[in-house]
């Protein structure tokens, strides 16, 4: 696939139901795969093969998500990212790096990447990250369906097929945290910080209790929160 | 190629052989010269005392009608030729060569030259003798001779006085040379220990203050190291490039196979594609590991790019990367992380932890558990990964860290590079890699401990 604007030209900029994604990847095979996955999910995809071209496109158009390979033939992905952030663009950026390049991950996040994936990654992993980022990018949908659960964000209500589920404010906050971090391991420290309030400091034990209560309520409906022993929790993300 | 290796020549031995032989020649030469000088000195000293009695005797010879005869009483004559050490003889011959007095069996002197008297050596009754012969104007010939004991003693004394100090000096020179060579060769000893103490892959130039004489050797050696370093760098760059170039197409291939697997497929085709997918994943991993190994090997030697790193935070990052995979394999991945701060390489340490966890997950059956620990044991920072897999027999433990070594009958599809990378990284940090069993039931515990660093401890305290 060559880069071009053709496949997004017919998408109205006000039409927020179609998500616009820029894939910046110089390897044709990988770019084609990424494009195909995103197209199948119903997103509008544009492809750039060089950093310079990506930079030009990003100046012209606003994308909801940029999938950005670091190793590009001319200017590297970091430079593209740096210029993007210099223009105060709020596009979400998913950086693709090599697995061994730890410094790339850190550098990328420092420059304002929203997430990173290390090559090679599975399609499922890629889809989960894209979903999570897009949830941030576009207005949060009023309702999510996860496994047998229906989550009404605005009303802070959760239903299973068997009826409504009552959640305490803490459990609700936890559920929201997991929903917005599919496929990500959340350490107890992180959870504690996210749920921190001035009047209550959450100990590791308290977090365990809250997670355990949340689990008993949502697991029958098919949403599983896994334990990473001695560390934290992981919701692997399910079909929405 | 069956030739015995040439015997190493010793600088000290060669030097000493040269020194001893030349000293010996010098001493021999000195001895010859001293001897001839000593003999001449002895003769100079004693010949006069032989000539005096000859004159005395000649003065007392009277010639009359009855012929010539010595006008001295026997006692006086004896006193004239008496000596404490040597036997003294005399002989008086008439102008007609008839023996007038003294010993009869002494041959006449050799021909007189211009002098009135002559000294010469001869043998008399089997003994060497020094003779002073005197010819008076009247034609009388008086010979007085003595044995050589006095003279020989003087010669001996002169020789001793000259040669004993010379021999002592020679011995002292040899001893000094022996130690001096040792001292002189100290820089070579320094050089040797510098080379011996090198880490095997440390190809930095030697940094020793070499004296002028061995500086060319050090220089040449450093040149060789530089060539090796260049060759090494080239090889590692090639490996890294090759691995890197392989990685992206493999990632693309893997993605396309996954997309294909999502389609409606016959069971046969699905199985085939799944096999291809598996092979692609393995190839990706191998490319990554080769790259990691090349990086670990080409990393600058100990400490050059080290930062202060908490092993806990590296294990923390690993927890995020590996939890999903562990769950997928139904393995309980757990962490017990305490602070363990070391000076370390920020790129290589995560590689080490990743490979340890990957290795543990690979060989632990579903339902098992893998636990990562970090902390300090008696102040010694460590990281360990324990699993409930089949364990590594004691006899295999040293081999599993070799490249591409895979235990016979090992299930799974390991590359045999994981623990080699771990060992490489551990070596770079001067750490210790231990492999043992978790308990009597088996399982493997791989523990990496790092040298305690008081400076870091002080800084993070």
Structure description:
- Chain A is built from nine helices and twelve strands.
- Chain A has two domains: 6-137, Response regulator (Rossmann fold); 143-235, Arc Repressor Mutant, subunit A (Orthogonal Bundle).
- Chain A has helices at residues 6-9, 28-40, 51-60, 77-86, 102-110, 123-137, 169-179, 188-194, 204-218, and strands spanning 20-24, 44-48, 65-69, 92-98, 115-119, 143-146, 149-152, 157-160, 163-165, 184-187, 225-228, 232-235.
- A five-stranded parallel beta sheet of chain A has the order 2-1-3-4-5, sandwiched between helices. In chain A, strands 6-7-8-9 form a four-stranded antiparallel beta sheet, with no helix packed on it.
- In chain A, helix 3 (51-60) packs parallel to helix 4 (77-86) and helix 7 (169-179) crosses helix 9.
- Residues 1-16 of chain A have low confidence and may be disordered.
- Chain A is elongated and about 50 Å long.
- Chain A starts with 5 loop residues before the first helix and ends in a 5-residue tail after the last strand.
- Chain B is rod-shaped.
- Chain B starts with 10 loop residues before the first helix and ends with a helix.
- Chain B is of the alpha+beta class.
- Chain B has three domains: 11-166, Beta-Lactamase (2-Layer Sandwich); 202-298, Signal transduction histidine kinase, dimerisation/phosphotransfer (DHp) domain (Helix Hairpins), CATH 1.10.287; 302-460, 2-Layer Sandwich (Heat Shock Protein 90), CATH 3.30.565.
- In chain B, helix 6 packs parallel to helix 9.
- The model of chain B has no long low-confidence stretch (mean pLDDT 85).
- In chain B, the strands form four sheets. In chain B, strands 4-3-7-6-5 form a five-stranded antiparallel beta sheet, covered by helices on one side.
- Chain A binds chain B through residues 27-34, 36-37, 71, 98-100, 102-103, 118-124, 126, 183-185, 187, 226, 228-232, 234, 236, and chain B through 244, 247-256, 258-259, 262, 281, 284, 288, 291-292, 295, 316-317, 319-321, 323-324, 327, 332-337, 346-347, 350-351, 369, 371.
């Amino acid at each position: 696939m060559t880069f071009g604007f053709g496949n997004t030209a017919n998408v109205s900029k006000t039409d927020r139901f179609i998500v616009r994604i820029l894939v910046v990847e110089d390897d044709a095979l990988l770019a084609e795969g990424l494009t195909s996955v995103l197209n199948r999910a119903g997103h509008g995809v544009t492809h750039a093969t060089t950093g310079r071209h990506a930079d030009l496109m990003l100046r012209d158009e606003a994308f909801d998500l940029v999938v950005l390979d670091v190793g590009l033939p001319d200017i590297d992905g970091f430079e593209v990212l740096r210029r993007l952030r210099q223009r105060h663009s709020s596009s979400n950026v998913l950086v693709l790096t090599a697995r061994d390049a730890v410094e790339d991950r850190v550098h990328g996040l420092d420059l304002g990447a929203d997430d990173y994936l290390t090559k090679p990654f599975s399609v499922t992993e890629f889809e989960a990250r894209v979903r999570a980022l897009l949830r941030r990018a576009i207005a949060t949908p009023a309702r999510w369906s996860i496994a047998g659960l229906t989550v009404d964000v605005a009303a802070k209500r959760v239903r299973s097929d068997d009826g409504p589920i009552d959640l305490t404010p803490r459990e609700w906050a936890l559920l929201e945290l997991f929903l917005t971090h599919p496929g990500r391991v959340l350490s107890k420290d992180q959870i504690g910080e996210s749920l921190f309030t001035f009047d209550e400091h959450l100990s590791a034990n308290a977090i365990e209790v809250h997670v355990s209560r949340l689990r008993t309520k949502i697991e029958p409906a098919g949403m599983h929160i896994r334990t990473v022993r001695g560390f934290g929790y992981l919701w692997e993300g399910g079909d929405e | 190629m069956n030739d015995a290796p040439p015997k190493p020549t010793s600088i000290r031995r060669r030097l000493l052989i040269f020194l001893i032989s030349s000293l010996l020649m010098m001493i021999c030469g000195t001895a010859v010269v001293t001897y001839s000088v000593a003999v001449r000195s002895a003769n100079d000293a004693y010949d006069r005392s032989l000539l005096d009695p000859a004159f005395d005797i000649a003065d007392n010879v009277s010639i009359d009608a009855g012929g010539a005869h010595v006008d001295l009483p026997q006692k006086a004559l004896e006193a004239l030729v008496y000596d404490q050490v040597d036997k003294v003889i005399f002989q008086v011959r008439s102008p007609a060569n008839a023996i007038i007095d003294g010993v009869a069996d002494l041959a006449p002197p050799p021909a007189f030259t211009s002098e009135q008297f002559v000294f010469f050596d001869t043998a008399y009754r089997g003994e060497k003798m020094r003779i002073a012969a005197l010819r008076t104007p009247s034609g009388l010939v008086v010979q007085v001779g003595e044995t050589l004991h006095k003279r020989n003693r003087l010669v001996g004394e002169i020789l001793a006085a000259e040669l004993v100090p010379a021999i002592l000096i020679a011995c002292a020179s040899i001893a000094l040379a022996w130690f001096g060579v040792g001292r002189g060769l100290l820089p070579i000893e320094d050089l040797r220990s510098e080379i011996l103490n090198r880490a095997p892959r440390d190809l930095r130039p030697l940094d020793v203050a070499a004296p002028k004489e061995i500086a060319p050797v050090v220089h040449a050696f450093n040149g060789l190291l530089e060539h090796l370093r260049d060759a090494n760098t080239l090889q590692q760059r090639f490996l890294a490039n090759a691995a890197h170039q392989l990685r992206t197409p493999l990632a693309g291939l893997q993605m396309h196979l996954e997309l294909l697997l999502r389609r409606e497929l016959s069971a046969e085709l699905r199985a085939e594609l799944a096999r291809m997918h598996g092979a692609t994943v393995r190839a990706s991993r191998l490319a990554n590991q080769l790259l990691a190994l090349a990086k670990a090997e080409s990393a600058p030697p100990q400490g050059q790019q080290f930062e202060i790193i908490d092993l806990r935070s590296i294990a923390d990052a690993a927890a995020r990367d590996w939890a999903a995979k562990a769950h997928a394999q139904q393995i309980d991945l757990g962490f017990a992380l305490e602070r363990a701060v070391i000076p370390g390489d920020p790129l290589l340490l995560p590689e080490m932890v990743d490979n340890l966890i990957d290795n543990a997950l690979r060989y632990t059956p579903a339902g098992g558990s893998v636990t990562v620990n970090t902390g300090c044991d008696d102040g010694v920072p460590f990281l360990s990964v324990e699993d409930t897999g089949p364990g590594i027999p004691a006899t295999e433990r040293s081999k599993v860290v070799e490249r591409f070594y895979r235990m016979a009958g090992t299930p799974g599809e390991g590359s045999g590079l994981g623990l080699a990378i771990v060992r490489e990284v551990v070596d770079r940090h001067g750490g210790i890699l231990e492999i043992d069993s978790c308990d009597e039931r088996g399982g493997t515990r791989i523990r990496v401990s790092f040298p305690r660093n008081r400076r870091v401890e002080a800084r993070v305290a």
